[in-house]
Specification:
The structure holds two protein chains of two kinds. Chain A has 21 helices and 23 strands. By secondary structure, chain A is an alpha+beta fold. In chain A, a hairpin with a 2-residue loop joins strand 4 and strand 5. The longest helix of chain A has 28 residues. The two termini of chain A are about 45 Å apart. By secondary structure, chain B is an alpha+beta fold. Chain B is globular. The termini of chain B are far apart. In chain B, about 45% of the residues are buried. The N terminus of chain B is likely disordered. The chains are: A alpha+beta, B alpha+beta. At the A-B interface, helix 9, strand 8, helix 12, helix 17 and helix 18 of A face helix 1, helix 2, helix 3, strand 5 and strand 6 of B. Strand 8 of chain A pairs antiparallel with strand 8 of chain B, so a sheet runs across the interface.
């Protein structure tokens, strides 16, 4: 190691172990991984071998430190995201920026923090602005390892004496970042310039204190800055607590042991990951595709760059190799665009990380070792790796969630084949309510309502999906308390309940869809952006083995209503979106205008007594719905997850009311299911027949939606393989969607 | 639901009858090395055919050794041909490609645009089971979701020889080429 040199420090001694620059350390680490396949070139775990008990105790001390510190951090923070929604985490990193131990929480950011630290190293922060004990660095930029503005990264160096021996990093999701529309994420800003306050991989403090200028910037650029400021203080306090605990541990074990042990912990995690792949998955090739459409042309108040309807096709190909390594190829992804759905390597690494930690690397030693067993191809200039400096990424999740839910779904096929049915899992799409205006306390307010963190998951191979308990980015899914949201936003809940017949059906169904219905309270000025699902007009994902995707969710708002009048007359109020729609349609609820739609929208100014609502989606089903246990269908009807009509339509189950109770008509159900099976055969055709018909239609090219044709052209322009795959299957004389743009 | 004491834990898991807490523990515990063997044995017992199961693909489909040919077979015995050719190409298909058809499927507002996507059902011609659904951009090639490398799995990961030639070579093109023949 001592011969390592790096020109970036102009001959000065580096701050890393043995006086080596961080950049040289990082490059050396990469080179050793590339040369040996092992993290830091470790072909054996010598410390573990010498004294396994000491090694495990060392790991347990580090792990318990970050987990217990995280719990303390909650009591310093003020935002609902951290206090109530688990939207934060804290981790320990090596000097090169690889995670060693991670807390629970918002898993996506284990690797985004790693990318940020590596950005600091690669860009010679060691020289300018310099890195010293007590410094604080922050970032929320896509190009420096972040995902989008609300995910604010706070990182401090961990010095032992004069030597940088690691980093401590924390992330919290901020519910307000000063976006154009209010809330943490902008749905409609087509470029980065509407995303609110950017912290551009900066030194934001020293001597363990934030610069006053940094704090003032947050105060002046966000609507309710106390959340962000206190979350930052919580993260800084957490980082300092971890730093001090690690220093005490180094005092005990010695620096040499510490530096070697953290490397071995990562290499062990890499080896464990490969072993788990070989134990639970199947080598080979897995393929899927996602298509998202964004219809913004008719959205009022839209930015001219974003006022259009677009679609994006993203194929995913996964190769599980002989040695257990996984290669994920996103070749064929369409070009980046003027919309908030672009991603960069940090975001995609984060997306991959959440899938790995929930599917394969969730016990034992969980750190970047798993990451080093996986490789991704993120073609430059595409929506998964946008290179345009002004590209927006505020809703990068609209791209990330379908891709990595598809990855989970594809890996599930491997788990299933090996008989590990308990590991089969499918993700879920998303819906988001943002709002801003003047609060019930008279000041500016902006917020993303993060009850969305508890959507219904996709179905499993052994049970239904989780009701109200899943978000892909954070395994600690929770809706939070209604009272918290009523305090944070000038709105009151009229209802929060399941919505019948809106989940992915199958032998096992997706977790139930649910919705919230609100009334504006205490404000004459509030506007909301409501994002129904990740897309307009396209489901996120196929189901598994015969399960179907759930229908798209709805959003609703109504202005100048007579709700207060109904309340004062003690009349019935709507409970749920379906009932609100019925009451609005019949005129029972009066409104100057109302809308119930299935695509993103920006409401007009809402005021006291206006109502608005959103549904949260369900994931896809698993297995043939006609094989669903009839008792489960009955239970769902009793719980309001199905209507009687839905039970019959989706599952062929006939229920009747007898003696005041619902009962299954066994004979009728059997007959109905037999008929439905017969219908299937009668209406279906051999694939060959369908192929010839569809091929003719495509060759004529007359019936192709121009939005989709543009998406096909975009993917073909970014990838030769995409067009080849198409040609190989359809065997047409020409690509039917027009010439790919160069 | 009646409890059968002879039913193994794995069978209960497959049937969706295993207690939630036990499932959670199964997820947390080290994975049993012979799970695939045990699972195949259960599938083999339930199958209507006697061919050796090499790899289960889904609830209905398995790759079986049909007299020396590795074929995708439905539980009912319908043979979809060599596993290296996408089995879907030998299935029946029904496509929800109009608003009316999607309305019929969902029964209420679904929000999906059949000019952007098509929802395909793949049905077993032998038993009318729904084998898979597929949502893809309109006009997208049929997805070959999962092409296992049986040779590597058996030889390198499980240490069982004799199946080395069963690679992940995609031969679906051959099948598609036959679609042009009248």
């Amino acid at each position: 190691m001592s011969e390592l040199k790096d020109s970036s420090t102009s001959g000065k001694q580096g701050i890393g172990p043995n006086g080596i620059t961080l950049k040289a350390l990082l490059h050396d680490s990469r080179q050793k991984l590339s040369a040996t396949g092992c993290y830091q070139g470790l072909t054996e775990l010598s410390l573990k071998k010498q004294d396994p008990i000491k090694f495990e105790r060392f790991h347990a001390r580090l792990l318990s430190t970050v987990i217990s510190v995280r719990d303390t951090m909650k009591f310093i923070a003020s935002s609902p995201a951290v206090r109530d929604f688990e939207e934060f985490l804290i981790n320990l990193y090596t000097p090169e920026g690889d995670s060693v131990v991670i807390s629970t929480g918002i898993m996506v950011h284990v690797h985004t923090l790693s990318e940020f630290i590596k950005f600091i190293i690669e860009n010679d922060y060691e020289v300018d602005p310099g890195i010293k004990d007590g410094d604080i660095f922050a970032n929320n930029e896509l190009w420096a390892g972040g995902v989008h503005t609300p995910d604010v990264q706070t990182v401090i160096p961990l010095f032992y004496g004069d030597t940088l021996v690691g980093w401590v990093g924390a992330v919290s999701h901020e519910l307000e970042t000063g976006t154009y529309e209010g809330g943490g994420m902008t749905i409609f800003s087509p470029e980065r310039y509407g995303e609110g306050l950017h912290i551009s991989a900066e030194k934001v403090g020293e001597n363990d204190r934030f610069y006053s200028g940094y704090v003032r910037r947050i105060q002046m650029n966000t609507r309710n800055p106390v959340w962000w400021i206190m979350d930052d203080r919580s993260k800084l306090a957490g980082c300092i607590m971890v730093r001090e605990a690690v220093r005490r541990l180094i005092d005990e074990v010695g620096l040499d042991y510490y530096l070697q042990a953290v490397k071995e912990i990562i290499e062990e995690a890499r080896l464990n990951f490969l072993a788990r792949v070989k134990r639970t998955l199947v080598p080979g090739r897995y393929m899927g595709v996602n298509v998202g459409a964004f219809k913004f042309k008719d959205v009022p108040f839209q930015h001219p760059l974003g006022k259009k309807d677009t679609a994006n096709i993203t194929p995913i190909e996964v190769h599980i190799k002989d040695d257990g390594r996984i290669f994920i190829d996103l070749d064929g992804a369409g070009e980046w665009g003027f919309h908030p759905f672009n991603c960069g390597p940090g975001a995609m690494g984060g997306g991959l990380w959440i899938t790995l930690t929930q599917m394969l690397a969730y016990d034992g030693k969980v750190n970047d070792g798993a990451y080093y067993a996986v490789e991704q191809n993120l073609p430059l200039g595409t929506v998964v790796n946008a290179t345009y400096p002004g590209a927006g990424s505020s809703i990068a999740w609209a791209t990330l969630i379908p891709i990595y839910s598809n990855l989970a779904r594809l890996l599930s096929m491997g788990f299933y084949a090996r008989g590990f049915l308990e590991e089969v899992f499918q993700g879920t799409p998303n819906a988001l309510m943002n709002g801003a205006g003047i609060s019930q306390f008279g000041g500016p307010i902006g917020v993303s309502n993060f009850e969305l963190t508890a959507s219904g998951s996709g179905a499993r191979a052994i049970a239904d999906g989780i009701d109200c308990g899943h978000s892909i980015w954070n395994p600690e899914a929770t809706q939070g308390d209604i009272e918290v949201w009523e305090m944070a936003v000038p709105k009151l809940y009229l209802s929060r309940n399941f919505v019948a017949d809106r989940h992915g059906f199958g032998k096992y169904r997706g977790g139930a869809s649910w919705g919230s219905l609100w009334i504006i309270h205490g404000s004459q000025t509030f506007y909301a952006t409501l994002s129904a699902q990740n897309s307009s007009g396209t489901p996120m994902l196929s189901g598994l083995f015969g399960g179907y995707p759930a229908p798209a969710v709805r959003i609703l708002w109504a202005q100048n209503t007579n709700i207060f009048e109904l309340i004062s007359q003690r009349k019935t109020l709507p409970v749920g979106i379906d009932q609100a729609v019925d009451m609005l349609s019949s005129g029972y609820i009066k409104a100057s205008q109302w809308h119930c739609i299935q695509q993103p929208a920006w409401t007009d100014i809402l005021k006291d007594g206006d109502i608005f609502a959103i549904e949260y989606p369900s994931g896809s089903g698993f297995g043939d719905p006609l094989e669903r246990d009839v008792e489960l269908v009955l239970r769902d009807v009793e719980n309001g997850i199905h209507t009687l009509e839905g039970a019959r339509r989706f599952y062929g189950v006939i229920l009747e009311e007898k003696d005041g109770r619902l009962q299954i008509n066994i004979e009728g159900t059997e007959k109905e299911r037999t008929n439905l099976r017969k219908q299937r055969l009668a209406r279906s055709v051999p694939v060959k027949e369908w192929w010839r018909k569809r091929r003719d239609e495509l060759a004529k090219g007359g019936n192709i939606n121009p939005i989709l044709a543009a998406a096909y052209r975009s993917s073909a322009s970014m990838s030769d393989i995409f067009a080849e795959r198409f040609d190989r299957f359809w065997k047409l004389a020409r690509f039917p969607f027009g010439e790919a743009e160069a | 639901m009646e409890e059968n004491q002879d039913t193994s834990e794995l069978e209960m898991l497959i049937q969706g009858r295993l207690d939630v807490e036990r499932v959670r523990r199964l997820q947390m515990e080290p994975k049993d090395p012979d799970r695939m063997e045990k699972y195949i044995a259960i599938r083999q017992k339930a199958a209507r055919y006697s061919y050796r199961i090499l790899l289960p693909l889904s609830e209905k489909l398995c790759i079986v050794d049909r007299d020396g040919s590795p074929s995708v077979m439905c539980n009912c015995g319908y043979d979809f041909g060599d596993y290296r050719e996408n089995w879907k190409l030998s299935a029946n298909i029904y496509v929800y490609d109009t608003v009316e058809k999607l309305d019929q499927l969902y029964g209420r507002e679904h929000g999906y645009d059949p000019t952007l996507i098509e929802m395909r059902e793949y049905i077993c011609p032998g038993c009318a089971s729904l084998l898979d659904t597929e949502v893809v951009p309109y006009g997208y090639p049929v997805l070959f979701d999962f092409l296992p490398d049986i040779g590597v799995l058996y030889e390198k990961w499980l240490g069982i020889t004799g199946l080395e030639e069963y690679s992940a070579q995609d031969n679906s093109d051959k099948k598609v080429a036959t679609f042009l023949e009248t």
